[in-house]
Every structure is written in C-alpha cells, then in structure tokens.
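To fix ideas, we quote verbatim a fold written out as tokens:
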Amino acid sequence: MKLTTITHVSVDGVMQGLGGSDEDRRGGFERGGWALPLFYGEATEFLNQVFQRADAFLFGRWTYEVFAGSWGAIAEMRALPIGVALNEKPKYVASTTLTEPQWADTTVLSGDLAAAVRELKAKPAGELQVHGSGSLVRWLFDNARPGGIAVHPAGGNDPGLPAHRPPAVRNGHARPEHVT
C-alpha cells in the first residue's frame, strides 16, 4: 500500500482542534472548530473523495480517539461519506497503552511500529492514509529514509521538498500527538 498523510493546516499555521469547538482545548486553545465553516461545496466533495480512495487508515492515539468518538459513534456522522469510509475500512492505531479498541475493525500496533508499517505497506496496491498532525506523522517522516518507510504526500511528491522531511509549520498551537 502507498502510505499518504493528510494534515489540515490553516493559513496562519493552526493544526489543532479543526473539527469541534471543544475538540482540543489544551494549552488554552480557543479556536476549536476552525475548519468546519470551510468545508462546503467543492471542499466537502474533495475531502469525501480523499477518504473514499483509502483502503485503510493509520492513526495516532489522539486522532483515533477523536475519530472513534465522532465518525465511529455518532449516527449522523457515520452516515456521511467520510463516516462510511472510516467505518467500512480497516483502522490501525499506533499505541502502547490502548488495549481494547471499541471501534470495529481496529488493530492496535503496539510493538515494532516500523515493522508494522512496512508490513502494511507490503500489502498489494491501495492507499494507507494517516490523518492528523502530531507525533505519528513526524515519526513517519523521521523514519522515511533509504531502507525505511516511504511516505508520500497525498497531493504527490513536491520536488521542492526533501523526501524525508515535511514542510516546516511554525505555530504556537500545534500539539504533539503522542504515540502512547
């Protein structure tokens, strides 16, 4: 499978709490839900297509719990195209502390994460999508080196960026998504 990352970032570099107003208040963050007003019309259709093309999803613990509590639990959200994709396809979560995931079709990757990701990538064709902005994405980029894990930006490879590093995002709001 091809491993891709999907990260939502505002023009001013905010990556935290894009979904709900109370999604992530850590550090005094008060702009939760900033992305919702932006997703209508063509933006919604594009995002629906992104989720639909996934064959499986890989999450850090934080994103997994947010998605499980919304896309996996709220009937209205489960019925939307993104919810359908998330609920019909396999989900993998990198965590050393999650032992009994409640969201159906979830596998916890708690051992050698690099080996687990290589094993997923070795599966025939398809796309393994990573959603979120935290430490899992940074870990994947840090481990994307010769002989390591190949990571492909969802929009394709940007020839202006080194293959092993994501674009720098500087803001006081991004929060590490700990792989715990």
User: Anything to note?
Assistant: The radius of gyration is 16 Å. The longest strand covers residues 2-6.
